TrEMBL record:
GO MF, one annotated term: metal ion binding
Pfam families membership: MDMPI_N
Domain Mycothiol-dependent maleylpyruvate isomerase metal-binding residues, every copy: 18-100
Name of the protein: Mycothiol-dependent maleylpyruvate isomerase metal-binding domain-containing protein
Source domain of life: Bacteria
Length: 218
């Protein structure tokens, strides 16, 4: 994919955010997230709100450290759900302003967390949304492997690693890329993907975070 226009990225952010808000029934907020042990839906919404605020302020570390993430969640301790969503509204409006000035919104974070929330609430959906395509494209373009790898998805393929050597192939989907690149799959699940050869040299280089200690089935 070509570099996306910031206003287009903003529309993907806006639409993803709205889908998340639509999932937030009164009963949803305290549900635990299997994809994010020790977090509830409320925690992840607080985190996404704080990410938006910190992006606008120019203070966000990418990716956030564990200490920074804990601080982001704590920022909304004692605030009711309406106050959290109001803060996210305000931050999202500022993200739109930045997009008009040429700075893209932090899309990848909320795309990943939308599906964390969907998994917790047993509400799968939006797996082929353009936001997933955009986030997976970014994740594959920064993939760095010690041996040649070709990842084939629904609408194309991506190559990483050195030019010399025997290439290993992986057939997968953009949704699965989103999940395994961000640590939502176990080592056993990574090894069991559709590889053309033994993936052992690659497995520890596939993810930015994680992987999970146990299989995560979605």
């Amino acid at each position: 994919m070509a570099t996306a226009d910031p206003l287009y990225v903003w529309t993907l952010y806006r639409d993803t955010r709205q889908r998340i808000v639509d999932l937030l029934t009164d009963d949803a907020w305290e549900v635990a997230l299997p994809a994010c042990p020790l977090w509830s839906v409320r925690d992840v919404v607080a985190h996404m709100t704080a990410v938006a605020e910190d992006w606008v302020a120019g203070t966000l570390t990418v990716p956030p450290s564990d200490i920074e993430t804990a601080s982001q969640i704590a920022r909304f301790d004692g605030k009711d759900t309406t106050a959290v969503l109001t803060a996210w509204d305000a931050a999202a409006a500022e993200l739109h302003r930045l997009a008009e000035q040429g700075t893209a919104a932090p899309l990848g974070d909320i795309v990943v967390h939308e599906h964390d929330i969907r998994g917790a609430l047993d509400a799968p959906g939006a797996r082929t949304d353009p936001a997933v395509a955009q986030a997976s494209d970014q994740l594959l373009n920064i993939l760095d492997t010690p041996v040649p790898l070709r990842v084939t998805v629904e609408d194309g393929d991506y190559r990483s690693g050195p030019h010399d050597g025997t290439e290993i192939g992986l057939r997968t989907t953009r949704f699965e890329v989103l999940r395994w690149r961000t640590g939502r799959r176990s080592r056993a699940q990574l090894a069991a993907m559709d590889w053309s050869a033994d993936p052992a040299p690659l497995l520890e280089h596939l993810y930015l975070f994680g992987p999970t200690d146990t299989d995560l089935t979605e």
